[in-house]
Specification:
- This protein is α+β, with helices and mostly antiparallel strands.
- The protein has four domains: 48 residues; 77 residues, no CATH class; 74 residues, Alpha-Beta Plaits, CATH 3.30.70; 88 residues.
- It has eight helices and 15 strands.
- It has a seven-stranded antiparallel β-sheet. The protein has a three-stranded mixed β-sheet with strand order 8-9-10, covered by helices on one side. A three-stranded mixed β-sheet has the order 13-11-15, covered by helices on one side.
């Protein structure tokens, strides 16, 4: 609301309606009679303003946001389980195949074997939904006896586990849906369908890429990294259940484009090169996550700006990306991946 209706504003307006011949000073009978009513009205105005904000997708939150987005078929994504790579060894470090469905634990989190990837290498699923399943790396202990097992280790994240979808993420998907109306299997439909799969961070759609009726969907994961094969397969299977009859759908992962940053910097007194390098790497990673699959280059000017904003950096020279003092061009299916930050003084 344009005017903030506080107790003081309301009470003053109420007292203005009382004839001047009546004592309206604080502590008077009329003042003490009107003050509680003014307080209740101020609370009512506050509740009315809150309800107004909760009625719009751009300002709503929590369960009210869910009710708003559900009208357009956009529902909050539940927490999902992490998919991890497990390594298993027998005597003399020989790869060991273990039973599908066997369970292992590490630091209080349990994982179950789901699929054999190669000799002694298995896809494992965390039993606890959420991002917590992404964090642990190291030895695993079997929860049941496994014949011949000498050592087990939890390795790479195949598909990141996700916490319950945040309001910001749900709102972004909702706004994309209403601002890009879908219609009978158009490009907006395929992008929306891909992003309904837990773990998919975004998608780009290429209609008619291989002739009439063909559609290509390029996806990346929630960390803005190339999608794992299991996520690609899950997305393909889901889209196949909702696509129009006759459409030939291909789902692939975006490819990673390595980005190596080098520069010579001048540091302020008291700053260590290693700390500055780590701070710059963090800010560049955040920038690259904003460079979606719809972008066609990484800006060296943006990187230079981030370098100057890094605490401890006074100035820089010889900034290059992948060995050149120029933007890095991205192909239509590429995502930037920071592989190194090398600074010198």
């Amino acid at each position: 609301m344009d005017n903030v209706q506080t107790m003081e504003v309301i009470l003053e307006r109420m007292l203005d309606r009382v004839p001047g011949s009546i004592d309206k000073r604080e502590g008077s009978v009329i003042y003490d009679a009107l003050a509680p009513a003014a307080a209740e009205l101020a609370q009512l105005y506050a509740e009315m303003e809150l309800q107004q904000r909760l009625g719009f997708g751009i300002t709503s939150s929590g369960e009210y946001l869910e009710l708003r987005t559900a009208d357009f078929g956009v529902n909050r994504q539940p927490a999902t389980t992490a998919q991890r790579k497990g390594l298993f060894y027998g005597e003399n470090q020989a790869p060991l195949d273990i039973p599908i469905g066997s369970r292992y634990g590490g630091e209080g989190i349990n994982y179950v074997v789901r699929e054999r990837l190669s000799a002694g290498v298995f896809r494992m699923e965390c039993e606890m939904p959420g991002a917590g399943g992404n964090l642990y790396y190291g030895p695993l202990l079997p929860l049941d006896f496994i014949n011949g097992l000498v050592r087990a280790e939890l390795s790479d994240v195949i598909v990141h586990g996700e916490d319950l979808e945040s309001d910001d993420s749900l709102r972004a998907r909702y706004l994309h849906r209403v601002r890009n109306p879908s219609s009978g299997g158009n490009a907006a439909d395929y992008r929306n369908w891909a992003q309904e799969v837990p773990g998919v961070g975004g998608a780009r759609v290429y209609p008619l890429w291989n002739g009439a009726g063909s559609v290509k969907v390029v996806i990346f994961d929630s960390q803005m990294k190339p999608a794992a094969p299991v996520l690609v397969n899950t997305t393909k299977a889901y889209i196949d259940t909702v696509r129009p009859i006759g459409a030939a759908v291909t789902v692939v992962s975006a490819a990673a484009k390595s980005i190596l940053l080098r520069a010579k910097v001048r540091l302020a007194d008291g700053y260590v090169l290693q700390d500055v390098t780590e701070a710059l790497a963090s800010s560049v990673q955040a920038y690259l996550r904003s460079v979606t699959i719809d972008s066609d280059y990484v800006s060296i000017a943006q990187i230079g700006t981030l370098l100057l904003r890094t605490q401890g950096v006074i100035d820089y020279t010889n900034l290059t990306l992948n060995g050149a003092a120029a933007n890095v061009e991205l192909a239509s299916e590429e995502l930037p991946d920071l592989t190194g930050v090398e600074l010198e003084v």
